[in-house]
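Hi,

Apologies if this is the wrong queue. I'm a grad student, and the batch job for ATPase (AAA+ superfamily)-like protein from Bifidobacterium animalis subsp. lactis produced an output file that my downstream script rejects. I'm not sure whether the problem is my script or the file. Here is the sequence I used:
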Amino acid sequence: MPLIPRELEPMLLERARAYPAVTLTGPRQSGKSTLVREAFPDYDYVSLEDIDMRELAHDDPRSFLQRYSNHVILDEVQRVPELFSYMQRVMDERNEPGQFILSGSQNFLLLNSISQSLAGRVAILHLLPLSYTELTHAGETPSNDEFVFRGGYPRLYSSLATPADFYPGYVATYIDRDVRAELGVKKIDSFNRFLTLAALRIGEVMNVSHLADEADVDSATIRNWLSILNASFIAFQLQPYYRNYGKRLVKSAKLYFYDTGLAANLLGIESADQLFASQCRGALFENAVVLEIVKQYQAQGKEPKLYYWRDSGQKEVDLIIERGGNPYFVIEIKSSATYRPKYFETLDDIAEAMGVPTERRFVVYGGEETIPTRHGTVIGLRDIGRLVR
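Support response: The file is valid. Your script probably expects a header line. Output copied below for reference.
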């Protein structure tokens, strides 16, 4: 299959015209190297995964940057953190935009190095796996269940690799390289079990103590591991909305994965047909919708302000998108391809209390038609862009 264009590319080029360096982070195998080489074909390319190049950069950073000081892509740059202070001098001396394109998959290590040495000199962008929108624009229009099951990693669309082949190796590589070698987790078997337990809790309000009991570790370890999932672009937490509007609100976060294909594989789901009959289908579809919104915001170089709502009376709305410090969209998510008016019942109550008008109330469902109603609008995955514009 031809290379699938990434929606982030125009923003990547724009930031390179404005900053001395641009950093592109994201999960391993999300297409970062392919994108930067496609976007900057005239730049030198150096992968610091290569042992020889890494040792040269580590042993003699001055000489390395004399050779690669301008219009260069440094891939997996977090593996040589001492380079950053030397890059700062080069950037300040040249004072030109687009000197360095930096990429890496260890968000915590990379951003920690940037904050110490390159603050104010570098723009930071995130590339996640392929979105449903990107696949649709490329002529691939998978069914909802196929998209959720397969996920968005480019190799699954550019080769004959199947989820059954790809994800076990991905998890093994992720654990061996990132978790053990770079982040220092020693209880790999327990961490692996924790990953599956996390997948089982997608879309649920997290109870750290219960999760710790099932993983057979303490709560402090679970909190540390949740941070590692976020730093490694494996999973993220959706926080509850913080304004109570006279209600007592749940204060714990929900957990979602950065790729539903990975989550489905951890849950032992072996096909889209099996997903259709799975009790996890609703949670995984909800994950896909939240993630699609995140992807489209990040393709614009923005960090979305997303929340969920649950009060002490168990009234819940799946998603609130905030703009300008106020709730802008209120969204309910249903995996069913059949619209039912009851989907708006709780949404109407909460949106009314927040002052969100009907035209900004949405149900995202498993169907394809857009359905305007007197309560709000019903849309499918292909129209998620309406929630980002």
